[in-house]
Specification:
Layout lengths: L13 H10 L6 H13 L4 H11 L5 E7 L10 E5 L2 E7 L5 E5 L6 E5 L7 E7 L4 H4 L8 H9 L4 H34 L2 H49 L10 H19 L2 H7 L2 H13 L2 H46 L1 H6 L3 H53 L5 H42 L20 E9 L9 E9 L3 E5 L6 H9 L6 E6 L2 E2 L5 H7 E4 L8 E2 H5 L7 H11 L2 H5 L8 E2 L8 H14 L4 E5 L7 H14 L5 E5 L3 H4 L5 E6 L2 E6 L1 H10 L8 H12 L1
Parallel strand pairs: 9-16, 9-17, 12-15, 15-16
Antiparallel strand pairs: 1-6, 2-3, 2-6, 3-4, 4-5, 7-8, 7-10, 10-11, 13-14, 17-18
Helix pairs in contact: 1-2, 2-3, 5-7, 6-7, 6-14, 7-8, 8-11, 8-14, 9-14, 10-11, 10-14, 11-13, 11-14, 13-14, 18-20
Bound molecules: adenosine-5'-triphosphate (ATP).
The site of adenosine-5'-triphosphate (ATP) has 11 residues, from helix 15.
Length: about 725
């Protein structure tokens, strides 16, 4: 390979850039790319700024550029531009696993090089904005909230028959009121036939009673159904939440929170009167038919109102859709901010950073208020328009009725009956428009719930799970690559790594080098993007997760305690006997916490572990790990919050409980304090294992290598590039 070129020496070429756009499915012409590149060139900006300007010039939205060294680049993100031999090439995956095809552009010279040759090269890649998660999973068969609701609704169809029968009768009874008016005006008033009036009144009382009973029964059936739907949906969503693939979990608490809260508005929808309104809506057509029987052409007035009102509802829905979406996104941001502020209250106070969060809060609240005002205005217009339409319909019906009376086609009683029936058309139609509007926000909530349900689970429900051997002889990582989210950086890049029975491994390396990530991948918490983690001879991701957790125990760097008591936190899994729990607690000194407060082991722990110090929390977590008696111990900085004496005691307790054939992998920034128990040391750098050997061999080498070194040319360029983003 020739000398590494600098960013300035090698200019982007229109051919390479155009080919990249084409390969990404971005339809821009070669001429447009050339013009945009020339314009960006004139500005003499840093490369990433140039890309920004070019994308802007070409009106390409939702795409952004990034720059990184090839050795850290995740090759699944190809095609990208790669700087090699003094120029930028379009790089695609070659036919062989480690070959890369470099092209100068469409129809221009190309060559295949090995990935090794590009190690020091720079990569310029374009990233699309994250696709909609549902779109992403549209081929996958996940249970959508709508499907779950429908299956819950139609599991027992008897209710449907009952509700339908009750609804038909309730609406038929409504006709009786108009018939009553018809009889009174046409028969009773002209002759003052009081006995007929009395009979009619008695009949009406019976009808009112029946109507009241049927409405009560119908509400009860629907309420219990709503409770059932809510139960099933909540259960499914919570189950999904508990079994989500941790590496796929959304980073935003606000979003996750809103997704789960979406259930609330679905429940409200089912338990409110909206459902009655919706099932009554089709009966408006029946009333129009009755008006036609009694008043002839008067019915046309209402027949015209019906589609107009529905059209109004649909238009309102369309106008509200984007608004409600934006509102939900903003409100998620607000939730996320709130959670962040509550969690970080001490840091905010200590850094006097409250103003920054207040500003953000104010901004979000202002835009939320703006959306709400806009939404209200749209709903208001729709309500007012439906109201006006209804009044116009009523007046028109009366006017048409007058002409019908004059023509001898309608009696006075008939006109009154038509007005009453008209009310039965107008009311559900006017409400129907409001229901359509409300449905819009329920539908958005259902989409939020669906987005949660579409997230990958740690194991597919249909997967046939294996059960491993009772003794785990080894844990290995084979060609494992791991990437957080859609980042182009490989956060873990391991060719082959095996831990055998009896291994006591210290995992060391600078901050952010991937120690925790490796432990999480080995524990089966994160699934590798490529390659396999094996427990013995079996792929960890093929094994029943219960089997995995019974053999592999992971102690996280950030210990989390749950709301409850000290005891409930020590025996989180519920499978540890009190004697065992107390014994380990006293070995570690956790019992001292219990003894120093009047509630003992029943000491209250608040949400997030408030009530214990950082070191005490770490001891509780260690106690949990020890009592699970794992075969594979994966400990992430287990003594980081402890004082020297306690740390010494912890190592003694661990040595006592770790069986000779167990595997121990401990990440630590203080390797010397744990060196006495280790028989192997792994050094990590930028996601790779750079050294692996006995402590006696690795530690002296590490000592000799601690002199600070000047950054390489590529590192400097990357830093410049990222600063420019
Ligand atoms: N949830 C995450 N999302 C995106 N990137 C992450 C996430 N967690 C870690 N990373 C990135 O992965 C890299 C490795 O992180 P990791 O936590 O494994 O490092 P580490 O060696 O354990 O560091 P430390 O010694 O500080 O604990 C870091 O560059 C970090 O920025």
């Amino acid at each position: 390979m020739s000398d590494k070129p600098t960013e300035q020496e090698s200019r982007l070429t229109s051919a390479a850039l155009h080919s990249l756009f084409k390969n990404m499915g971005l339809g821009v012409s070669f001429g447009d790319v050339s013009v945009a590149l020339e314009r960006a060139d004139v500005l003499a900006l840093p490369l990433l700024e140039q890309i920004k300007a070019i994308l802007h010039g070409l009106n390409i939205k939702g795409v952004k550029g990034g720059m990184i060294a090839w050795r850290r680049f995740d090759r699944r993100q190809l095609p990208a531009l790669v700087q090699y031999d003094g120029q930028w090439w379009l790089a695609k995956n070659g036919e062989q696993a480690d070959s890369v095809l470099l092209e100068q552009g469409e129809g221009l010279p190309a060559q295949a090089v090995s990935s090794e040759e590009l190690v020091e090269s720079l990569v310029l890649w374009l990233q699309r904005a994250k696709p909609n998660h549902l779109e992403d999973n549209k081929d996958q068969d996940f249970p959508t909230a709508r499907k779950l609701i429908l299956s819950a609704l139609f599991q027992d169809k008897l209710w449907l028959g009952n509700v339908l029968a009750a609804t038909v009768v309730i609406n038929l009874l409504a006709i009786a009121t108009s018939l009553f008016a018809l009889q009174v005006y046409d028969r009773v008033v002209p002759t003052l036939a009081y006995s007929t009036l009395a009979t009619l009144v008695v009949g009406m009382l019976g009808i009112v009673l029946l109507d009241w009973m049927l409405k009560g029964i119908r509400a009860k059936v629907l309420d219990s159904l709503a409770a059932d739907v809510d139960m099933r949906l909540s259960k499914q969503v919570f189950h999904h939440l508990l079994h989500l693939r941790l590496d796929k979990q959304p980073n935003s608490f606000g979003t996750l929170n809103a997704q789960v809260n979406g259930l609330e508005s679905v429940r409200q929808f089912f338990t409110s009167g909206i459902v009655f309104g919706l099932i009554d809506l089709p009966f408006a057509l029946m009333f129009i038919a009755f008006i036609a029987v009694i008043g002839g052409v008067v019915s046309w007035v209402y027949a015209l109102l019906f589609p107009l009102a529905i059209l109004l509802g649909v238009v309102t829905q369309i106008r509200l859709r984007t608004l409600i979406k934006k509102q939900i996104l903003r409100s998620n941001e607000r939730q996320g901010l709130l959670i962040d502020v509550i969690r970080g209250a001490e840091t905010i106070r200590a850094n006097n950073a409250g103003w920054r969060f207040s500003n953000e809060w104010e901004q979000i609240t202002r835009s939320l208020a703006g959306y709400q005002v806009h939404q209200k205005a749209i709903s208001q217009i729709s309500t007012a328009t439906t109201g006006s339409l209804s009044t116009i319909a009523y007046v028109s019906a009366v006017v048409v009725g007058v002409f019908q009376i004059e023509a001898g086609n309608l009696t006075m009683g008939g006109m009154i009956a038509c007005s009453i029936l008209g009310g039965r058309v107008i009311n559900p139609v006017a409400q129907g428009v409001q229901y359509l509007v409300q449905w819009q926000s329920v539908s958005q909530s259902l989409t939020m719930v669906d987005q949660l349900l579409a997230l990958d689970l740690e194991r597919k429900p249909s997967q046939h799970l294996l059960v491993g051997e009772q003794t785990i002889g080894s844990v290995s990582a084979e060609q494992v690559r791991f990437v957080y989210g859609d980042s182009p950086v490989k956060h873990l890049d391991i060719e082959q790594l095996t831990f055998n029975a009896g291994d006591r491994v210290l995992l060391v390396g600078p901050i952010g080098c991937g120690k925790s990530t490796l432990l999480k991948v080995l524990a089966g918490l994160y699934r590798p993007s490529e390659g396999r983690i094996k427990l013995g001879a079996l792929d960890l991701w093929e094994i029943d997760p219960q089997f995995v957790t019974s053999h592999v125990s992971y102690l996280p760097q950030n210990v989390h305690l749950f709301k409850g008591t000290l005891k409930s936190n020590l025996t989180l899994s519920g499978t540890v006997s009190d004697t065992e729990m107390m014994q380990v607690a006293s070995e570690l000194g956790v019992d001292v916490i219990a003894q120093s407060n009047p509630k003992g082991m029943e000491l209250d722990i608040a949400e997030g572990g408030e009530g214990l110090s950082g070191g005490q929390r770490q001891l509780v977590a260690l106690s949990r790990t020890i009592t699970t008696k794992p075969t594979v111990w994966l400990l992430d900085e287990p003594t980081a919050s402890l004082d020297a004496d306690t740390e010494k005691r912890v190592w003694e307790v661990l040595e006592k409980h770790i069986k000779p054939d167990d595997i121990l992998v401990v990440s630590t920034h203080r390797p010397m304090l744990a060196a006495h128990i280790a028989n192997r040391v792994l050094v990590m750098q930028q996601g790779k294992v750079t050294r692996d050997g006995a402590p006696a061999a690795v530690f002296p080498a590490m000592m000799n290598n601690t002199k600070p070194t000047a950054p390489t040319a590529t590192q400097t360029r990357i830093k410049r590039g990222f600063n420019a983003i």
